[in-house]
From TrEMBL:
Pfam families reported for this sequence: BcrAD_BadFG (PF01869)
Gene3D superfamilies in UniProt: 3.30.420.40
Domain ATPase BadF/BadG/BcrA/BcrD type: 8-256
InterPro entries named in the record: ATPase_BadF, ATPase_NBD, Euk-type_GlcNAc_Kinase
UniProt organism field: Alteromonas confluentis
CDD domains on file: ASKHA_NBD_GspK-like
Protein name stated in the entry: ATPase BadF/BadG/BcrA/BcrD type domain-containing protein
Amino acid sequence: MIHQQYFLGIDGGGTKCKARLESQNGELLGEGLSGPANPAQSADIAFNSIIDAAAQAVASANLPTETIKTLHVCLGLAGVNIPAYRGLAEAWKLPFANTLLTTDLHIACTGAHGGQEGAIMITGTGSSAFASVDNVHTIMGGHGFPLGDKASGAWLGWRALSATLESMDNLMPSTPLTDAVCEQLQACKSVDIVAKALHFRSSDYAVLAPLVVAQAKQNESLATSIIEDGATYLTAVLLRLSELNPQRLTMIGGLASYWSDHLPDNIQRLLSPALCSPEYGAVALARQAFKEA
């Protein structure tokens, strides 16, 4: 008797964990959504989020609860590119039949290219680049804010906020962008801004990113210079990715479509559209790893 095989893909990030459950024939059976799943932030929370999302996917597929023990799983998690946190995740006693552990970048890349190899540039709240070419993985950026994440939403907001403080110190003239930052933060003194931003996370800085984009569309000089700086960085990264000769190259993330319009024509011609989600990519990797299990 041939038993049905189930493949589960997990996309675990700093704010949420998504699960996708497929049959051995590639049919979508169920999905799940839970909390943060970045071991670098909290290994215990990440573990519980993974189990919760997996259980939701099994339940939404109307399968028995014990099905979770038969799953062939790929975990694509933020933070596990750092060896210490990968070690924490590898030590988990997971209930699945088989588990492949990799990074969230790897599954995002695999999903963006329909289950195949390729390269991606991610620009959302953070930014990073990843390539998979002949089973060799290359990561660029992804160092986290404020060490990295250039051309991200957090970086755009940080640049705007830094310029606003410089204008308040009379080191540069105020501009419509710095005025917009003050208005949004409801602050008219530098100490007020510093007090508000003292414990800002990446997502808090990213809230200011739309101000930069809006002012750049009005050709405001400060905003335009910030956008040009970000586009120069992305151009350099995309050129470096293309030198690796990936099968496909794409940009993904909440700011991807905006940035692509600001890249040189020769760079835009290198780009292909993203095909599928990171969870799809995780399932594809689980299928590749355990199809004979």
